[in-house]
Amino acid sequence: MEQGWYVDEEVIDADLCAELHRELMALADHHALDAAGIGRGQAHALRRDVRGDAIRWLDRESLAQRRYLEAMGELQGALNQALFLGLFEYEAHFAHYPPGAFYQRHLDSFRGRANRVISTVGYLNPNWPADGGGEMVLFDAMDPEREVARVRPTAGTFACFLSETVPHEVLPTRLPRASIAGWFRRNASLGGRVDPAR
Asked: Could you report the per-residue pLDDT of 55-74, keeping only the tens digit for each?
């Protein structure tokens, strides 16, 4: 909490990473992913000059997905118990970046305007080479020009950070890059409007 982010290697079980990687690659091979956009609701737009990945929301259909989401559920409980964050639910999607794809610097949530509290990224790529590109760069919340971490997208590596305050980007990848992006959300229901929507 002092720095607003966490990164470590070999956090996700190797066998689970392999199962999830196979599932995502099969979806990509069968053109079963959707081009990712930016913005929400009426502001949603496809901007390949900003973001080049394709996604598929996790739906618990496979055992591997259920195992990953159960692990995130345990993390949610631990975060709520330790930090009293009031995290309400977790949403996540597969993200596939083809060679050359990137995601420009951004925040996952605008301060005070959304309910994403903590962002997570779990990496699925086996044997990622040092020159493979596709690193996620985290920037200082107080000095958005200062890089504080560069995360290689190697299978098992896990990152989480504060959604409203930690700018980040994905550098151009040289190889197909596989990950799961997710968000712990706070319940922002107000005035009879359910958010998250069901």
From this structure: 999 999 999 999 999 999 99
